[in-house]
Amino acid sequence: MTDVSIRTSGRAGRITLTRPGALNAMSYDMCLQIDRALKAWAVDREVALVVIDAEGEKAFCAGGDIAEIYATGRAGDYGYGRRFWHDEYNMNARIALYPKPVVSFLQGFTMGGGVGLGCHGSHRVVGETSQIAMPECGIGLIPDVGGTRLLSRAPGRLGEYLGTTGARMGPADAIRAGFADSFVPQDAWPGLIDRLEQTGEPGLIAAATEPLAVGPLAAAADEIDRHFAGGDLATILASLNAADTEFTVAARKALLRGSPLSMACALELIRALRSGRSGIRNALRHEYRFTWRALEQADFLEGIRAAIIDKDRKPVWRYGMKEVTPETVLAMLAPLGQDELKFEGERETMKIGFIGLGNMGAPMAANLAKAGYQVTGFDLTAPCPEGVTPAEAATDAANGADVVITMLPNGKILRSVAAEIHPVMSQEAIHLDCSTVDVDSARAVAKAATEAGLMAIDAPVSGGVGGATAGTLTFMAGGPEQAFAKVVQLFEVMGQKAVHCGDAGAGQAAKICNNMILGVTMIATCEAFALADKLGLDRQKMFDVVSTSSGYSWSMNVYCPAPGVGPTSPADNDYKPGFAAALMLKDLRLSQQAAEAVDADTPLGLAATRLYETFVEVESGGEKDFSAMLPRFEKRGRPFS
Ligand code: NAD
């Protein structure tokens, strides 16, 4: 009998784990079957989304099936485990970077390998019985299957706490920690799955979602942040020892159960990913360095023996809490040379031409070069960043490249560069344009590329120069699925998220719609602060209320335009950009140009365009951050009073 049912139903690719007797533990064979199906559905036009669920009430998937890894490892054969992990991590990355929505329904236990299958998709649904955890340190492994990436992005020090103690999260805490997205009561799941299959519309999930009370881990956030803030394991333990609360007693007990080597390595990875580039492949590559060594050099075999084989729960770990040195941790996590984790389709020898090395293009090209790609760059004026080979002309950068990336000021320049480079590009090479341009130019360039036997993707970005430098941009892409699948690896290096929005021009459409909302909400936020000032309302109080009430937005909560209020933003740096008002004006104009072309009524978008026009062209605000609308409003009264 098969342990997983793979089929299509209506518009959905369907995966159901059918091994409830073993808590749906994922075997190597299940993993390979799932990955094959995902690959096929990624390019199947009939499949609009993938829905993953599992039979049985107790578990979505309680982990990877480690019996065979243990048996072969005990016999001195480490190859099976390494292959299993290698292929499983490829499947995890495929889900995280999937070009279509992946919806998962996570009842009961979702742990370890279950997290890798269920918690990287775009729509992760939890219910009343959901219990999500990464308990690997308890068996001498580390949180893997991309778990360190999720943990590194959890609020405060929750990631360190969950990763070392293996604590379980109920539905509310799982959503807060970023392991899930929506709570839908479980008796509504079958009906919802039916509708998803019929329509292929993941938007239906939002309508079925219900609110939840705050979870216990959210309530313990202060204690978690205090005790797990910094230092090594011994420091964390000492901090827990110094307090005597229900939380510290339980956390101490859990810490004392785990493998010190595993916990120290988990801490190192979670912190490193948080402060650096946290893409899924990056996380998996680092995790694989540990798991590749786990059978031979870590506590994994002993951990399984004690927990599952002999069940004595008395593992003899290699190191005590104070004996794990930073050198030991580094040795466990050191690169593996030719044994490094490789992702399917990844060609680090991929040749890239990069045209337009300005504020955005230079750091993006540099990140690609750092990741091992051969990058040849060209710009009319800007110098090549380190690691990028300079070309004499745009055609020299494009000639022989597998992918040519353009990062240029506007649509007119893009069209002229495209006309220059398309004739010299190799057949089936990809022109990946990341500039922000008008939808018509994006579509015209895609058409020209197709006529020249090439593929084109328009993939404008969000995240600014900071995101380009840190490799945390968001890409919104339009173009053929096969082309998107090929360049996903580049998005992964230059950014942390890429959404395939549809056919040619869809990326630009998403970008200008997003930025039209941003322009409007920033103006509304600035207006409201200026009004609040005149009503005598303290700005901090205004922030405290709005950021947690129905007026909240990214402009208020993340990029607050009032100096000294909310998280640090350009307002705290005398409104130096950030995102310059002139660039916001460019994007708003593109939105109005598009609205005009398709006869869409966008009165607020138009009003925002007019305001930024005045600010940039009459009031010399173009080089200030776009949030500098606030000091502008502060000084003004009503124009018609
Ligand atoms: P930039 O002006 O710093 O860089 C553009 C570069 O293109 C310049 O170095 C210029 O010399 C080069 N260039 C112009 N014509 C060329 C040609 N024919 N051949 C080769 N090079 C040429 O601009 P930027 O800030 O890097 O922005 C680039 C794109 O990214 C724009 O479309 C912008 O709207 C978009 N964008 C910018 C930001 C941001 O915060 N800066 C954020 C998101 C998107």
Provide keyphrases for this structure.
alpha/beta; six-stranded parallel sheet; 29 helices; N-(1-d-carboxylethyl)-l-norvaline Dehydrogenase, domain 2; six-stranded mixed sheet; 641 residues; binds nicotinamide-adenine-dinucleotide; 3 domains; 18 strands
Please give the structural blueprint.
Layout: E1 4-9, E2 12-17, H1 28-42, E3 49-54, E4 59-61, H2 67-74, H3 79-96, E5 102-106, E6 109-111, H4 113-118, E7 123-126, E8 131-133, H5 147-152, H6 158-165, H7 171-177, E9 182-183, H8 189-199, H9 204-208, H10 216-219, H11 221-227, H12 233-241, H13 246-257, H14 260-275, H15 280-297, H16 300-309, H17 326-332, E10 351-355, H18 361-370, E11 374-378, E12 389-390, H19 394-398, E13 403-406, H20 411-421, E14 430-433, H21 439-451, E15 455-458, E16 461-462, H22 464-470, E17 473-478, H23 481-494, E18 495-502, H24 506-534, H25 539-546, H26 554-557, H27 581-598, H28 603-618, H29 629-634
Parallel strand pairs: 2-3, 3-5, 4-6, 5-7, 6-8, 7-9, 10-11, 10-13, 11-12, 13-14, 14-15, 17-18
Antiparallel strand pairs: 1-2, 16-17
Helix pairs in contact: 1-3, 2-3, 3-15, 6-14, 14-17, 18-22, 20-21, 24-27, 24-28, 27-28
Nicotinamide-adenine-dinucleotide binds next to helix 20, helix 22 and helix 27.
Supply the CATH architecture of the largest domain. Answer: Alpha-Beta Complex
Q: What's the average pLDDT?
A: 94
Per CATH, the class of the largest domain reads: Alpha Beta
Look at the structure and name the CATH superfamily of the largest domain. 2-enoyl-CoA Hydratase, Chain A, domain 1
Total DSSP helices = 29
Hetero ligands: nicotinamide-adenine-dinucleotide
Oligomer: single chain
Q: What is the share of helical residues?
A: 40-55%
Query: Given the C-alpha coordinates, what overall shape results?
Result: globular
User: Rg to the nearest angstrom?
Assistant: 26 Å
Distance between the termini: 79 Å
How many distinct domains? 3
Instruction: Give the class from helix and strand content and strand pairing.
Output: alpha/beta
Number of strands: 18
